[in-house]
């Protein structure tokens, strides 16, 4: 799968999420201001709780909108085996158990999972532990994540 395909999938997923959270914010706002939510007494907090939900949904929609804008304006950089990893790298790593994992190093939306041919690609950001560990590495390099018994070793097998 090409980086262009991954970028298209990220934009599509974020667009879907934005529509979902925008609609959820509208519904929560309507619920918070509905006549049935008016307090019956000073201990009735139904409207207040609904307004918190509406604000949380609106905040999440704004976060997604910013992420979507950053991906729409993203310039994909070319990589090969000798170019150090940085933003827009599509990275395949091999875990200790021999399994391959695919990551896209993006500016936002860390943790977003995309279905791609042959499996899954996870968006990571430079602020994540794995993202920080990958920055500046090249194909063939090893990296270790975690401490003690939780320490895992990965080998970078492809960068594009």
At a glance:
The chain has 2 domains: 70 residues; 70 residues, Transcription elongation factor, GreA/GreB, C-terminal domain (Chitinase A, domain 3), CATH 3.10.50.30.
How do the strands and helices of this protein lay out in sequence?
Blueprint: H1 3-33, H2 46-72, E1 90-95, E2 100-105, E3 113-116, E4 119-124, H3 129-134, E5 142-145, E6 152-159
Helix pairs in contact: 1-2
For the sheet with most strands, the description reads: 6 strands, mixed
* Radius of gyration (Å): 21 Å
Query: Total helix count?
Result: 3
Q: How far apart, in Å, are the first and last alpha carbons?
A: 10 Å
Question: How many domains would you count in the coordinates?
Answer: 2
Q: Based on helices, strands and strand pairing, what is the structural class?
A: alpha+beta
Give the spatial strand order of the biggest sheet: 3-4-2-1-6-5
Shape: elongated
Mean pLDDT: 92
Topology as H/E string?
HHEEEEHEE
Tally of extended strands? 6
The portion of residues assigned to helices is 40-55%
β-strand percent reads 15-25%
Low-pLDDT stretches: none
């Amino acid at each position: 799968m090409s980086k262009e395909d991954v970028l298209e999938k990220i934009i599509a997923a974020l667009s879907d999420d934005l529509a979902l959270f925008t609609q959820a914010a509208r519904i929560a706002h309507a619920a918070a201001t509905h006549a049935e939510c008016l307090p019956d007494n000073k201990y009735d907090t139904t409207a207040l709780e609904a307004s918190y939900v509406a604000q949380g949904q609106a905040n999440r929609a704004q976060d997604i909108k910013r992420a979507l804008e950053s991906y729409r304006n993203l310039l994909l950089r070319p990589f090969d085996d000798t170019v150090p990893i940085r933003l827009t790298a599509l990275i395949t790593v091999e875990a200790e158990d021999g399994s391959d994992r695919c990551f896209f190093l993006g500016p936002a939306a860390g943790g977003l999972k995309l279905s791609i041919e042959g499996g899954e690609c996870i968006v990571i950001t430079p602020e994540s532990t794995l993202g920080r560990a990958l920055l500046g590495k090249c194909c063939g390099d090893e990296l270790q994540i975690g401490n003690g018994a939780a320490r895992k070793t990965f080998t970078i097998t492809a960068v594009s």
